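Fold it.
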Amino acid sequence: MRYRTAIAVFLAVAAMSGYGHAADPRYPDWPCTQAKVPEISVAAVWAGPPLDDGAGKWKDDATVSALVAKLAARRTPLEEAQKAITEYLNSAADKTASGKLLFAGLFESLNAQRSQVMNGLERVTRKQREAADKIRNDTLALQALQSETPPNQAKIDELSNQLVWQTRIFEDRRNVIKFVCEVPTAIDQRLFALGRTIQQEIE
């Protein structure tokens, strides 16, 4: 029974050609169906006034730095983040300058988040490729043990159990990858929404 289970899962693993053939040859370890966009461009998420040199200055402002950390955290609900932006800018002496500084911080922070997520996805993909090779080799070894006469049942059971465990981990990782593949897009959408809120406040 364990042998049949391991073989069934192995066949599912073997059918997953995505680990051997990337959709975009420029990014061989990218596992997602979504195209990999390494960085968000400012033009894609910001239609407000030029940011000038705000990219480096926002970290020097303790209030802006703290607010950026709160707004960039995905655990902060979007509506709460938008409300915090409105409250901050309504109390600012120079709405435009403060808004540009705030967006510069959000742009840098959320781009960094995306990079971390995407690098993590590619690391897991490499592990999955190695795991698929190991499962494939162990399955062939198990088939060889099965064909021996007389079969060594202890070795068969040991390798079968090992295969079941390996394939379970493989499947769990695959499910996590599917979920995490949505995160870069969610970050893009969050940055666009927060940038739009800032723009509306400073117009």
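The two ends are 68 Å apart (CA to CA).
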